[in-house]
Structures are given as structure tokens and as C-alpha cells.
Amino acid sequence: MIVDSELSRDRDRMIQEIYQHDPWKMLICCIFLNQTGRDQVDRIRREFFKRYPDPDSAERADPAEMSDMIAPLGFKNRRTQTIKKFSSDWLHKEWNDPIELYGIGKYGQDSWEIFQKGNLDVKPTDGALVGYIKRTKKQKHENRNNVLLL
């Protein structure tokens, strides 16, 4: 069961930060966020990752079961197909950048650059990613100035 304080801590961070340690899950969240709000994603993501903790389980998933689980996000059949094909590509395709994988566009690629590679020189078009980069650069600058003062 999700405790309010746990959800509150999560709301203070971008979903990509929460799943930064698990790149497949981070990109699944990017697929979830396509034309969907954060609140809707927060309602289903934990249960989804309990049922499908890795790309193998998602690739093998029963499409009807998965689509029922993600129905609150909208586009349940299309999104299920995307998740299954993306997971198959993740496992079986030779790739260098996630944009080469099915279902991953600019938002997913920008998220990869920022949260997996630490590249803050990306030029995202998504407002949340732009804000994250600005906040992170400002914080790094302030931290650097504080060290210089010591």
C-alpha cells in the first residue's frame, strides 16, 4: 500500500529521477507520460512494475491483462502494443540510443540523455525537462559557489 508520505516524496521528483536506477522502467514511464498526466501515471506505475518488473515479463505479458491495468492512462491497446514492442526491442535489438527503440521519441531520448548520461546540454521541448535542467544547473552553480566560499 502506498503511504501518503511516500507519494509526497515522489511528487517532489520527476518520474525519471525515481527510476533513474532502472533505465527500462524510466523509459516505460516516458511511454506512460505520452499524452497523459503525471497524476494518472502515479496511480498505476507501482502496480504495473510489481506485475511487470522487467522487459522480459512485459514482452511476454498477456495483452488483455496489461491493457486493463493501464486503461486509466488512455489509449490502452495502442500503449500495450508499444510497451510490448519496446520491451522486445530492448531485449533483442542492437541499439545505441533509445530513440532507435519502438515507441521512444524525443521526450524519451531527452530523458535518457539527462537522467542516464547526465547530459544537461540537451535542448528539450518538454516544459518539465526544461525546468529540471534549469533547476539542476542553478543548484550545481550554487553548490560550486558555496564550495568556493569555504
By CATH, the superfamily comes out as Hypothetical protein, domain 2
Mean pLDDT: 92
Largest pleated sheet: none
Q: SSE order, as H and E?
A: HHHHHHHHH
Q: CATH first level: which class?
A: Mainly Alpha
Outline: globular
Structural Rg: 17 Å
Counting helices, strands and paired strands, the structural category is mainly alpha
Low-confidence stretches: none
* Strand tally: 0
What is the count of structural domains?
1
CATH architectural group:
Orthogonal Bundle
Percent of residues in beta strands?
under 5%
Number of helical stretches of at least 4 residues: 9
Distance linking N and C termini:
44 Å
State the share of residues found in helices, binned by percent: 55-70%
The fold-level CATH name is: Endonuclease III, domain 1
Describe the model.
The relative contact order is 0.11. The protein has helices at 4-11, 15-18, 23-33, 38-51, 55-59, 63-70, 76-92, 106-115, 127-149. It is 67% helix and 0% strand. It has one domain: Hypothetical protein, domain 2 (Endonuclease III, domain 1, Orthogonal Bundle). It is built from nine helices and no strands. The model has no long low-confidence stretch (mean pLDDT 92). α3 (23-33) crosses α4 (38-51). The protein is globular. By secondary structure, it is mostly helical.
Which short descriptors sum up this protein?
single chain; mainly alpha; Endonuclease III, domain 1
A few lines on this structure:
67% of the residues lie in helices and 0% in strands.
Topology:
Layout: H1 4-11, H2 15-18, H3 23-33, H4 38-51, H5 55-59, H6 63-70, H7 76-92, H8 106-115, H9 127-149
